[in-house]
Amino acid sequence: MKQRNNSLKETGKMSILFSLLLLFVFVLSAMFLVLIGSQVYDNIQQQNRSSFYSDTASNYIANKIRQFDSMDSIQIREENGQELLVLTSQHNNQTFETWIYVKNGFLMELYTPINSGLTLEDGLPLLPCHSLSFSLDTKTHLLTIQLQQQKHTPVYSLNLLLRSTH
User: Fold this and answer.
1) Would you tell me how many other CB atoms lie within 10 Å of the CB of residue 18?
2) Can you tell me where the transmembrane regions are (predicted)?
């Protein structure tokens, strides 16, 4: 009887030990699951932010170009070694230019009367942007815009067919 009683005590101890071990494994698994889930969430948020800025910058530039899409109003120019998109417009018999470019990690815009003396330093920062380049195929009238939001992110490319040049 005493031997049977000891056997029951050992079985009870093993049962409790097994239950505690199972609980420990469950808690550890839950912790790892939460940590992995938070990392996935952070990655998704970072991609959403990156996508937002790239999409917003490209949509902003595309809408500006569509606004100014008239004969000879869109040019690519270099100013102090900086490539910029120049959009020309007429208001009250005066010619104005909108310059779109990247400076100091920001997409910049400068709206100025022609020959006003304003420089690239006078532009307004719009959105974070690492690089921006333009190319215009004069035969097909295809304007290609490439922008990169951050240094190690993919380059986003946008092609626009200028309608006014046909």
Assistant:
1) 10
2) 20-41
Q: Quick check: helix, strand or coil at residue 154?
A: coil
What is the total count of domains within the chain?
Answer: 1
Cβ–Cβ < 8 Å for 156, 54: yes
Nearest residue to 102 (alpha-carbon basis) of 82, 117, 78, 116: 82
Residue-wise pLDDT tens digits, 154-164: 888 888 888 76
Residue-wise pLDDT for 42-63, tens only, equals: 888 887 776 676 678 888 999 9
Structure tokens at 1: 């009887």
**Helix or strand (DSSP H, E) at 6:** helix 2-67
Rounded Cα–Cα distance for residues 166 and 161 (Å): 10
pLDDT at 11: 73
Residue ranges of the chain with per-residue pLDDT less than 70: 1-9, 50-51, 53-54, 164-166
For the chain, give the longest Cα–Cα distance.
113
Tokens 């993919």, located at residue? 154
Given 3-state DSSP classes, what are the helix, strand and coil percentages for the chain, each rounded to the nearest 5? 40, 35, 25
Q: How far apart are CA 116 and CA 118, in angstroms?
A: 6
